[in-house]
Prior knowledge:
Chain A is mostly beta strands. Chain A has strands spanning about 5, 10, 20-25, 30-40, 45-50, 60, 70-75, 80-85, 90-100, 110, 115-120. Chain A is globular and about 40 Å long.
Amino acid sequence: EVQLVESGGGLVQPGWSLRLSCAASGFTVDNYGMHWVRQAPGKGLEWVSGISWNSGNIGYADSVKGRFSISRDNAKNSLYLQMNSLRAEDTAFYYCAKDRRGGAVTGAFDYWGQGTLVTVSS
Amino acid sequence: AIRMTQSPSSFSASTGDRVTITCRASQDISSYLAWYQQKPGKAPKLLIYAASTLQSGVPSRFSGSGSGTDFTLTISCLQSEDFATYYCQQYYSYPPYTFGQGTKLEIK
């Protein structure tokens, strides 16, 4: 059974940093692109960042470019999101999601984690 | 970035109804479109990809159509468990991938 489990969320002050993790199981992680998608409370979905199977293709939303960094460790079946210079508008549930099709970043996410809440507030 | 616009933003329907949600892309995305269902407090669930291909395990009352800039999600006979928020997503242009603003389907 495919499972994605996020961790690392919490309450931080503006300007602080946080590192999210996503532990994957039930599939061969290194065959697939992976993504972070966020959702502010009561709002819609926003794609944040994606990374190809070999970390050769990485992309970011303009809203986080230069502040967030995505990475993966295939040996540990894990995905990460380093978030620096956090702002109030970064407050959201952060989901990790798996590309449906293997290879490069391909879009259409067939499995999602349960999400981890990041709250940025003084 | 490609902008995705869904309509309506919300509406009410009854079980047994046939409902259609529309998604429009700001430029041609071919068939690189997915539909997701999200229930309160839960992660989104992939329903349809490549505009019209049903994800494994999704009931056949769900269907998708369209290509280019205009797409639709149809639920042929609403069931109680279908009341949720639906999102379209383009994956033609990366980065970024973009979602529509969502359509909330409520019980009449």
